[in-house]
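Appendix B, record 7
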Amino acid sequence: MSEQMILQGKLVGIEDFLLAPAAEDECALAGGGEQHLLAGRSHWIALLAEVIPRALLAEFGLPRVLLGSSGGGQFLLVLPGDSCGPAGEFLGAAAQGIETMSRGHLKLTWAFTENLGDWSVVRRRLAEDLQHRLAALAVPGGELFEPFPCPSHADGYFPGLARQLWEAETVGWSPDSPARLALGASKHTWGLIPNRAPDTVTVARHMAPSDDGQSPADLPALAARAQGRALWGVLRGDADNFRIRLRRAQTIEEYVQLSVLYKQFFAGELEVLCSQPEFWRKVTILYSGGDDFAAYGAWDALIPLAREMQRLFHRFSEENLREFPGPEGKTISMALALAPDPAAALASVFQEAGRLLELAKAADKDCIYLLGRTLEWRQLADAAELKETLARMVGEFGSSRQVLNELSRFYRKGDLAWGQGGEHFEKPWRFQRRLNRVLAGARDREVHKLRAHLANEMMGRGAAQVKLRPAGLVALEWTRLITEV
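Structure tokens (predicted):
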């Protein structure tokens, strides 16, 4: 038998492609608008990383067991040495089709190396080969700067993919169009529904249904389903230092095991969560990758979705990563960006959520950026409890604007004092006096207990000064959004 070769493929330029401007007729002819364009692009990328390696094996009659890992924009295959030439031609045709369909924004690159030596040595050779190929793609005057025809845009391929995927049962591949995946019959097909086929493509694809249940809900419909203010948002999450965790894998088996574990967690748990009653009409999955995910929907559903995903990821890491030393890949950070209005572009809010996620990761690990603050997950739990207290107080008086605006002014004043001068000039009794003034007409003993609880939760004491807790502002904004009609 000939020597074994390791093939690693990777899609490059994913974020640039997702945020690239639409062609003039790309949205209009599909009737899906900008929302379905971004969703269709995301699903296409997710499917490419799953279908391309499977199609390669099927086209050359190679067994499915040679597929090591796939998804998240990359894949790993073990191939017989004599199949490298045909595999390179196959990937070259797919790469050309991908560049054409993405107008040069998305590229497929790959590397071969012998399956010899320790995995750390094999992985380094693959990484070096990929780096050389990536550098060649960026050479001025190369393919990157050539114009690309867009036959897929004329019929609204990407928005159409988003509208059809939510109820499709199979995905297919044909050598005539190696990058244009089909939902349905083709030369090679794979199931999209778990447990109905021996080789199922794992893709999270839940979409909140429209009111008539015939199509995915649009952004205004999702915003209208939110409690309080009618707004939608985008939630993005990413496992912390996942690349470091993969680089520490000692064998190819361990590398594949980790890759598959993470991919199945994000795709499986996200799909199951979004099928729950509190999420299924409010949240649509944009994508799930090898170590990250994105979803959009009614803003009030995205916060509990984030908390539940963090809880599940914590349990996942405890159960599956206990034997791996170090904290890398065992925590998750997220960010929620709210649309400035229901008619905002999904791509711009998606981009903002990515920026906020970077801010959260720069500040710390295992945290979330939410409503103007980066919080640790335990602080988000505190904010949720405080939000319930504030909502009860607002309900007692029926004057959300008075209560919340008064507290917000105090909070922002104190926050500004800390930020500008390094000293905090508000005294604890001033905070108590403001609460007393807001609750001046209250006679209910329970309300005064809530007031005392609120004061304790929103501030810590030291050196006769009030230190406002970071969860306080998040709770205030959260309550304001929920109680606003």
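Remarks on this record: Residues 27-32, 141-152, 416-426, 461-467 have pLDDT under 50 and may be disordered. The chain has three domains: 4-181, 219-370, 380-483.
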